[in-house]
Design goal:
Layout: H1 3-124, H2 130-144, H3 151-168, E1 172-181, E2 184-193, E3 197-202, E4 208-212, E5 217-220, H4 226-236
Antiparallel strand pairs: 1-2, 2-3, 3-4, 4-5
Helix pairs in contact: 1-2, 1-3, 2-3
């Protein structure tokens, strides 16, 4: 083999060996790069999956917030309606409160006039339980002068007094008390048939009197009414069953 040929062969062999080494390194680099690419792609996909899951969660939360917002809007509108209705009630109460002083200024004089009228009526009426009725008038006047008693309570007590006076006209009653006859105080049993008749019977049951409201005086009854007066008192006290009795009833005018 010539020297030139030997050198060429050596060069070619070196080139071939060098090319093989370069190709192997390149392939290794390619494999490593491909591996890195796969790893990066897997990480990227994982990030994408996480982002997708987060976006779905955020979307669900958004939809929930939207639903809650709509519900709150409806509820707020409802509450606003209630508040408006309550405000109307408050305004109405305030107007009534503002009128209280005016009402008081009107009702207090009325109560005084009612008490005065009741006192005059009792003075002109049949004297049934007279001391008790006069004491009630005095209590009403004390109540009117007591600053601790409300106007409503004063009104209630005056109306109650009128109701008691009304009841006297429909009750049959017997009670013990004192009467003045010809300047003498006598303890007697009283019997009243409403306001139609008021009889006084002595405790020894020997004398009886009838109230004459026209003359504003007591009139002694004759003996024919004594027994019936005794029976009337006993019937009013539930000591005898109810029955017809003879009483001196004034004729209607």
């Amino acid at each position: 083999m010539s020297k030139r040929t030997l050198i060429a062969s050596t060069v070619i062999g070196a080139f071939v060996l060098g090319s093989s080494a370069v190709s192997a390194d390149t392939l290794n680099d390619l494999h490593k790069e491909e591996g890195r690419i796969h790893v990066a792609a897997a990480k990227s996909q994982e990030k994408i999956n996480n982002l997708y899951e987060q976006s779905q969660e955020l979307l669900a939360e958004y939809r929930q917030v939207v639903d809650e917002t709509e519900n709150l809007k409806v509820y707020n509108d409802y509450v606003a309606t209630l508040v408006a209705d309550q405000q109307r009630g408050i305004d109405s109460l305030q107007r009534q409160i503002d009128q209280i002083d005016e009402t008081k200024r009107g009702i207090v004089p009325l109560l005084f006039r009612m008490i005065d009228s009741l006192e005059k009526f009792i003075a002109a009426d049949v004297p049934i339980k007279l001391a008790e009725r006069n004491a009630r008038i005095e209590r009403l006047r004390d109540v009117m002068g007591n600053s601790n008693v409300t106007v409503s309570e004063r009104f209630r007590q005056v109306i109650e007094a009128y109701q008691i006076e009304l009841d006297y006209g429909s009750k049959i009653d017997a009670y013990q008390g004192n009467m003045n006859y010809n300047g003498t105080d006598i303890t007697v049993d009283f019997f009243n048939l409403g306001r139609t008749a008021l009889i006084a019977l002595s405790l020894d049951q020997k004398n009886a009197w009838m109230w004459d409201n026209g003359n504003r005086s007591w009139v002694e009854l004759d003996g024919s009414y004594l027994e019936s007066s005794i029976e009337a008192v006993r019937m009013a006290r539930k000591q005898l069953p109810a029955n017809l009795v003879k009483l001196p009833i004034p004729a209607a005018e």
